[in-house]
């Protein structure tokens, strides 16, 4: 028996990286999953791999009308939504004097506005379901800033704040809302050409002396999606190998 048997989940940014790991874990644990992304080929391949309990939808998370379509189609295919994982995100690393208005706004739209739209749009569906769990993927950069990360940091701080506001508003409907704050996780985002040396340097700053794995994040998100975390809402869950322990 899976921890998510009978549950319907929506996961954004699900075609690769941490998102695809979450999709696999949820299906493994018995959920019916609609996952979305702009990476169509990878999304369709994952859908084919996982079978009838996983459906891919192309989805620009910054568009309100596309959110409405995703939720409506999820209900039509599987039923009302029990779980939302706001996982889609990007990073632009530039100093203030190099960061353009357009780049800043793009990061905020994808990382921050999408979370607002997702929570707002899914609310009615979760009311139909009689409750639910929303997991918003922030970052340890939503707990403390870093030079060269103004756009990313501000968006992730905002996700942390929105999570708390939504948790207070949604509690009366039996809907829990929590944020997850990963540290350095081994994904395609940090595996680009020329990044190995930088990643090796970063490992030396991590008390556990290693990067995290997507599977480890998926297990944490599974905990928050399941009834195992039934008394947790409005909280921050950190998985960073100890980076923030001294803060």
TrEMBL record:
Q: Which GO terms describe its biological process?
A: bile acid metabolic process
User: Which SUPFAM superfamilies does the entry mention?
Assistant: NAD(P)-binding Rossmann-fold domains (SSF51735)
Superkingdom as given in the UniProt entry:
Bacteria
Q: Which Gene3D superfamilies match?
A: NAD(P)-binding Rossmann-like Domain
Q: Which UniProt keywords apply?
A: Oxidoreductase
Q: Which GO terms describe its molecular function?
A: oxidoreductase activity
Q: Does the keyword Cell inner membrane apply?
A: no
Family, according to the entry, reads as follows: Belongs to the short-chain dehydrogenases/reductases (SDR) family.
Protein name per Swiss-Prot or TrEMBL: 3alpha(Or 20beta)-hydroxysteroid dehydrogenase
Which species is this record about?
Lentibacillus persicus
């Amino acid at each position: 028996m899976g921890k998510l048997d009978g549950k319907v989940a929506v996961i954004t940014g699900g075609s690769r990286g941490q998102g695809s790991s979450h999709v696999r874990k949820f299906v493994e644990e018995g959920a019916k999953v609609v996952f979305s992304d702009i990476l169509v080929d990878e999304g369709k391949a994952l859908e084919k791999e996982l079978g009838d309990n996983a459906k891919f939808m192309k989805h620009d998370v910054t568009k309100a009308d596309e959110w409405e379509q995703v939720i409506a189609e999820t209900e039509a295919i599987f039923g009302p939504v029990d779980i939302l994982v706001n996982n889609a995100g990007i990073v632009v690393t530039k100093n203030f004097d190099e960061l353009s208005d357009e780049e800043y706004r793009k990061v905020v739209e994808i990382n921050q506005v999408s979370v607002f739209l997702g929570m707002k749009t899914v609310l009615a569906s979760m009311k139909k379901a009689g409750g639910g769990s929303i997991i918003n993927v922030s970052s340890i950069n939503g707990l403390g800033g870093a030079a060269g990360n103004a756009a990313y940091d501000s968006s992730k701080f905002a996700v942390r704040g929105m999570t708390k506001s939504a948790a207070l508003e949604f509690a009366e409907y039996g809907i829990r809302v929590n944020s997850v704050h990963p540290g350095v996780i081994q994904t395609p985002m940090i595996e680009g050409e020329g990044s190995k040396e930088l990643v090796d340097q970063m490992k030396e700053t991590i008390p556990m002396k290693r990067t995290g794995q997507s599977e480890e994040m998926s297990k944490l998100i599974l905990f928050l999606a399941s009834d195992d975390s039934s008394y947790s809402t409005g909280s921050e869950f950190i998985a960073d190998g100890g980076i923030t322990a001294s803060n």
